[in-house]
Amino acid sequence: SLTKLPIQVCEWTCIFAVLMVLTESRHLFDIDVTICLTLGIAPLFLPAVILDSGPRYFLYYQFWLEHIIPIYSVFYMMFVKGFRYDVKKIYKPIIFLFILAGLSMLANYYIPEANYMYLQGDTLGEAITRIIPSNQFARFGVFAAITFLLFGIEFLVFYLIRRYRKKKEDKSDKLVENNQ
Question: pTM of the entire structure?
Answer without folding.
Answer: 0.76
